Structures are given as C-alpha cells and as structure tokens.
Amino acid sequence: MMLMVIMLSGCSxxxxxxxxxxxxxxxxxxxxxxxxxNDFVNNEAGFDLxxxxxxxxxxxxxxxxxxxILALNAYPVKLNEGYWNDYEAFQSNALSLLRGFMASELxxxxxxxxxxxxIHFPRFVEINGNVIIKxxxxxxxxxxxxxxxxxxxxxxxxxLTDVIVKAEVISKNKFNQLYEYNNEKNxxxxxxxxxxxxxxxxxxxxxxxxxxxxxxxxxxxINLMSLKEKGEVLIPEExxxxxxxxxxxxxxxxxxxxxxxxxxxxxxxxxxFMNQDRDWYQYYQYAYDSSYDAFNQxxxxxxxxxxxxLEKEKYKDQFPxxxxxxxxxxxxxxxxxxxxxxxxxxxxxxxSRKYIVEFPAKVRLSDYTDSDIIYKYLVIIEDDKEQxxxxxxxxxxxxxxxxxxxxxxxxxxxxxxxxxxxxI
Length: 424
What we know:
- By secondary structure, the chain is α+β, with helices and mostly antiparallel strands.
- It has helices at about 1-10, 20-25, 30-45, 50-60, 65-75, 80-100, 105-110, 170-180, 235-240, 260-275, 280-290, 290-300, 315-320, 410-420; strands at about 125, 130-150, 155-170, 180, 185-190, 205-220, 220-230, 250, 330-335, 340-345, 355-365, 370-385, 390-400.
C-alpha cells in the first residue's frame, strides 16, 4: 500500500494531491500505521519507490550474457528433441533473470512446459549499421501509469516504461560472420563457438528501450505479470526477434556534454586551420591531390600533425577538400576560437566521439568587401593508444550568410547522413 502512496503523489499523470491520498489512506489504516506513514512521507519527500524498484528489476533483467540471450530468445515450434533442450535452457535462464520479481501467475506459466511470450527478453538488435550483442548498466528510467486497477487483494498497474541503458555493439558485418538465423529455433545460433571478439571490434552506445509493463503491487514490492516491447504489434511472435525489428528501441546521446580535452583540441584545430588566406588553402589542395606524404608535410607545416589521426589509405576521406572555408569568392577568413559552439552528436559512442561545431566568421570577398558567415562542421575524435585524443575526421556540413549564431538542433537529414556513412 505504501508503494501506491509514493506513486500517486509523485506521478504527474494522476490528479490526486498528496493530502487527498493521505486522507484516503488514513481511513484504511490504524493510528499506528498512520504514524509510520506520516514519518515516511515527511522524511522521504519526493522519494519515488516505484522507480527505484523498477530500476532494480531492470538492472537484473539486462544482466544477460551473449549465451543467455541466445537461450532466452529461441522460439522453436516443432515438438522434437531439440524443442525440449531449448525449453530447458530457456526455463533455467528465465527463472534466474526474473527471480524475486515474478507474480504468481507469471511464475506458474514459467514452470509449465511451453515457451511463454509474456516476457520479451533482451535480444540482439540492429541499430545504425551495428548490432547490440550485450546490455550493460541501466543509466536511468522513466515511467507513466496508463492503467490502474484497485482490488481488495492488491493494486495492479500497466506502465509505459522507458529504460536508458548502455549496450555493447559490433558491426553488422561482424555479426553476420559470427551468427546465422536458424529456422527451427526461430533465432540466431553461433556459427563458431571458438571465435573470440577483440576489444577493437566492440564499441559501447546508449539506447532507450520502451516497454509495456504489467505488475502487481503488494507490500511495497512489485510483482511482474508481463513485459513487452512497445513496437510493431503486427509482427508475428516467431519473427519479432529478428535484429531488424527495432521499433521499441532508439539511440540516445552517449554523453551530455563535450569532454573538456576534446573541446580544447577542436578549438586549437579550427583556430589554426580557419585563420588562413587563399594561398595557403591552395597549398592544402595541392598536397591533398599529390600524395599522403605531401599532405602529412602540409599538416606539419601548419602545426596540426600531432593533433590528427591520419591514415595513409584514407586521408582523403578523413580531411576532404570540402572542409576548406575559402569557398566561391571568399579570399580570406577570420574567426575566434572562443566563438565556437560545440555540441554532442547523437551518433556518439564510447570509442568515437562526434561533435557538431558551429562558429561565426568574418570573410573577405574577391571584390574586397567583408561579410559575416556561419560555418557548420562534423568532427570525429578518437583516442590514440599512446598519444590520447586526436581528430580522426572532419566533414563540412554547410555555411550560411548570417550575423548571429543561434542555437540550432541537428536536423534529421544530417543525422541520417552521418549514421549511414561508412566507418573509417
């Protein structure tokens, strides 16, 4: 009952005030119970017990290994020897993952000899050219009560729940080398159990998973009845587990703010690179077209060689000629590094930090007039094992005639363009 009080007083979807809830509880409790309740409310103002319990559950729920994901998502439909082997592996892993949070109804289903679909377990999911193969720590959780049932025995709730969780990913190409879809199991199997993933082949991202959760509340404890992905409802259960079905999941920013060292690196690079005349940018184009060695020397002449991560076979993709600010009839440019606005790109991961960089600049045109321009770039930074953070790639996005740098969001077109580009 106490859990209900906390939920009703702390959730915006219900109009009942804290005092009204207290009055309601007072009619049902003894004086001793009322004293305990009042002490709890006074000492724990704003304390969201339901969120804490849900977070505790999802941290247990997502603590699955790669092998457990394979066992929990097998969905055979033919009753043969393989079915019972799959069921035994499913049951032991499911009961372990849900232990302490199952309603009696759900526990009864789990102990019968069939594969229940009341729980949508963590699974492999494709996102932006990568595949999630493992879930890590739960970072945050938000819920909304969309249905409430109050009986003499207990309270029942249906919640729309968003879980922010870190996830380990590999490229889709690598995933296809490791796994294949098995039609009998209706899920993936590992092609070679001896294959070991190197750390360089893995990365870490942050995603938001949306679930519809049905639960019971009894004595300040949540008991799960069902948990299902909030995705495409028309997909048959035997096909839902395929990696392309990802409607319930979306990418969220891995970092809230740019790293201070990255900010310093970006400011230094742009200050050096942007405050040049047209002759120097012609030198850039000559070196770019000539060879890697000439381009490397040009970066050294500009004192930028130690701040970029040049690759001999890819330097033209890393720093294309389009990043030169002296375009069209612009002959020179002047900008202040302190005017840079640096924001984290949605596609940022643990290993590859992506930033949108905007800044105003004064430019001199070929007719000797001056103009104010806004420039916008995408900058990718990665860590060198020995020398720390370096710029791995810069992509020109656009320039506009403007006199002020207003706050802008990354539009969907830019996000899609960058997410679909080849990793270098």
